[in-house]
Amino acid sequence: MTHNLYKHKLLILDFGSQYTQLIARRVREAKVYCEIHPFNMALEEIQRFSPKGIVLSGGPASVYDEGAPLLHKGVFDLRIPVLGICYGMQVMTHILGGEVSRTQDREYGNAVISIRNHSELFHGLGADEEKIVWMSHGDRIDRMPPGFQILAKSKNSPVAAMGDPLKRHFGLQFHPEVAHTPDGFKILKNFMFTICGCEPSWTMSSFVHRTVEALGRQVGDGRVVCGMSGGVDSSVTAVLLHQAIGDRLSCILVDNGLLRKGEAEEVMDLFGGRYGIDLHLVDASDRFLTCLEGITDPEEKRKIIGREFIQVFEAKAKELGEARYLAQGTLYPDVIESVSFKGPSATIKSHHNVGGLPEVMNLKLIEPLRELFKDEVREVGAELGLPRDLVMRQPFPGPGLAVRILGAVTRERLEMLRRADAIVTEEIRMAQLYEKVWQSFAILLPVRSVGVMGDERTYEHVIALRVVDSLDAMTADWSKVPYAVLGRISNRIINHVKGVNRVVYDISSKPPSTIEWE
Questions:
Q1: For the chain, how many structural domains are there in total?
Q2: Which position among 175, 242, 351, 461 bears the catalytic label?
Q3: Cα dihedral angle (178, 179, 182, 186), rounded to 10 degrees?
Q4: Catalytic residue list contains 177
């Protein structure tokens, strides 16, 4: 297992907090390897994982609720430092003999804590000082477990932080992982480095070296097929494999007719030419567009595209010769979701990663990026020498432009959207916003509006513009793009994209909306 390659690592046990992934991101930022597992991870598995420290995440439950997620008491007997955050602190208190109760005044948002006791956890923050933190709880600690002492208080929390320095067990009622706790990262680093004794050995340079070696051992003398899309995930996957096994890797780019302007040509030129990867282009645009004719339901579009992709990819892979492995650019957030203690989320979208291929083709799956977050994948791409434009490329949906055309997909509507989307990208780049926002793209709406162009009345299509800020796509806020930039985008689209006479800007956030419209 990958974690065995790292001696200095943390284990995060998940109780369902919306911030659990953010804890992991902060730990990784400090160059310490970590993994997220469900709160009920078996004690034997925890011991095999051999972490330097354990973090208990927050969560929406109360410890006194029926069926509340609780921790195996043996975790506290492993002689491993433990940090409980919010609900994790309450679980620690409950299991070790303290008392948790519902508070009269729920704390949510900014709060001020007063550090009451010198502790390694608050090293460098100053004793008897007040600090701004982010609270999100309706319960509080009324009585600490034996051996614990108060480290900090707040107006509504007599125990805002606590610690047992002998056993190295600590609890925080607030969330140190969020940006709203200004000194939170310092607190986490104190736990990782001072209390747990971790060393910052998690770097993308070491990841590339270890992964290339591991892929070589895993594949042996076998062959691998990999689907290319032009996105950063599949690109990094392919280059890592190419370094590991050379010409025993074959990549397939399926042009489903739903790609962005010039995308297929760019991918072929870069990877087939500059990198010398065995890359094969399959033009199946007619097939996909015929199957999508008249289909307006978003989920049906996705199912059709996924089904046809599998069939096209399988046929081409068989033509290229026998392979043992299928490579896929699965990222760590997908892995976390699949092992969540609450079970996989309800299907909001299918075709995030194309499922079914390993079973259909009787192949073993290779996922070299499955332990990385998106920002880490970009770092790996830079480490591998990929062009910055590719490394920083914004996410693009698996079904392509089909889910950015609301309603039926036709060649005419595809061409209209391609041209509008290219203008959006050009203008966002020229405004030096491309790498500052998470995504920026155009959507073709299934409505027409009245307009006046020249002295003539028009009745033409509407383009919606979507630009969002996000860290990981789990939540997102609409970007405050300067009016001048929006004006240029609108003007160029209306003047240069035939059939469009109106551009609107989407100012909804996720949640309640999603980033994509379908």
A1: 3
A2: 175
A3: 60
A4: yes
